[in-house]
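Hey, resending since the last one bounced:
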Amino acid sequence: MTGGNQIGADGLSLPEVNESVTTKHPRQWRRLLAFAGPAYLVSVGYMDPGNWATDLEGGARFGYRLLWVLVLSNLMALLLQTLSARLGIVTRRDLAQACRDEYPKAISFALWILCEIAIVACDLAEVLGAAIGLNLLFHLPLLLGVLVTAADTLLVLWFTRMGIRVIEAFVLVLIATIGGCFAFEIFLARPEIAEVATGLIPRLNSQSIYIAVAIFGATVMPHNLYLHSALVQTRRIGDSDEEKSSACKYNLFDSTIALNLALFVNAAILVMSAAVFFSRHIIVTEIQQAHKLLEPLLGSTWASVLFGAALLCSGQSSTLTGTMAGQIVMEGFLRFRIQPWLRRAVTRSLAIIPAALTIYFAGEASTYNLIILSQIILNLQLPFAVIPLVHLTNDKERMGQFANGIWVRLAAWGCAAFILVLNIWLLIDQAKEWIEGAGNYRPLVIALCALAGMVFAALLVIVSCWPMIRKMGENRAAIAKRVSLPLDLSTSLESETAPVRWNRVYSRILVPLDHSDSDHEAISNALALARMHGACIILLHVEEGVTSQLFGNLASTAEVTEGQDYLADLVAGLRAQNIPVEVVVRHGSSPSHEIVGAIEDLQPDLVVMASHGHSGIKDLIFGTTINSVRHRVKIPMLIVSRT
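The structure tokens again:
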């Protein structure tokens, strides 16, 4: 099932800055600088307050033993971000748009919901991190600091209006500040290099799995994959394979530098925590505790001051990129655009509310565990971004010569499998803990865990297997016997090989549309009958979007506008052939219900519908509109198969 094509600015990722940076420079170093930037915006998500909490926890509890997790997650991040950038460069579609093109509407909607949850979880960590930074530097109460973070919406909007290069420069300054602060912290901590090296040996057990998964969730962040595929489109590249290949190479270099800087920051936090806290058997239960202990343990007031400054910079830089990711995801999956300030306000509100409630009812110490929980949520959503990305970049029809080679495929699927194994391990351990502590509610907890597990598994299977299901369906449709006529509405059908006898005359032919290739099949057959009978064709389209359901004819979204243009083109093509045509648009959540309602209101003589040629599991995904309609109406129906 494919989505619509790009329509003006509505089909572009980040249309305000799309292709706003030229890369046509005669000198190679200037071209390198022109491409530098997107990966740095992405990298701030790899050193946000969520990373701080997981790295501090990992270092304080397990010393250097989880350092290998950071290195491995960084290598995985480099591979996945490279694939994301390649998808955006080659197809000029971001990951959200590509998923919308590839997956059925219901699955695409589910992926959007999961991604929005991940963005809110990430924003939650940023809210808490910025609030803690304000508390450490200016002694602002944590609850007040959380509420103050709502004001950074104005900062985001101000920078967005100044262009993508200004945003990139600002974020680079923040990254340099964070890196400089932790370089000084490492200098003061003076860790033993030999002990640090032992952390590169993979080790994991039931005690460290929770923090290991949290580190992965904080490092390989799902919404960064959507973000990177859009940011690379801010560069004006060109359409030739040579230009795309060059852009991929420059972006690989950009990603390598940026993500290794992020690795340095994360490793520095973990190593500092291990050298300062683990060696003294101090368990860190909150970021504020780490800040207070640094000064007496390291013997310098600068240690705690720089720690707070770096944390505040981390929260603010992540805020910028989180806002952009939210815009990309909403517009890509839904083709629904709202004002950036409103989008930011909604996301920030969903993060502030749980943060404020947690601080108010559970106390400031609870914020640490809340940050770590947010990173677990990120990691649970990660497979639903990684698996589609791997599928899409493996597709030779979409990527051409830039499709993944065999070794990249193996590495990418290895990353996906590794993430899945960690997730399943964590979920099983967590479910056991909940069930053991449920008491009298144990049967209910078991039922809820089982239900959640089945939903998670079912969605995962569909997302993983859908490309194969789609291709199998296309192959079946290609060899099936079909009743069809030419798809081109401009094709003349005047040459008839033999007269046709009809037992009844059709004067009004209703054709329900779904904006897919099947529409042409239905219209071609309706056109032939209309010519023979002198009939009027009634084109029916059902708008299913949430906005359309709420506002009806007053709805105005990119998808509604696209639908209007699509219908206008069909009407123009039919009227050019002197075919009477009418257009009816209905709004509702059930296409079959609206089609039946239109038939009852309009009383056509014939309904022509095109099938998608699917059955079995596809019926569960797409639904069975035709069966629902034909069992509820008494007028003749002509069902034609998709070519």
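Strands lie at 21-22, 235-236, 508-513, 536-543, 581-587, 606-611, 637-641.

Sorry for the duplicate.
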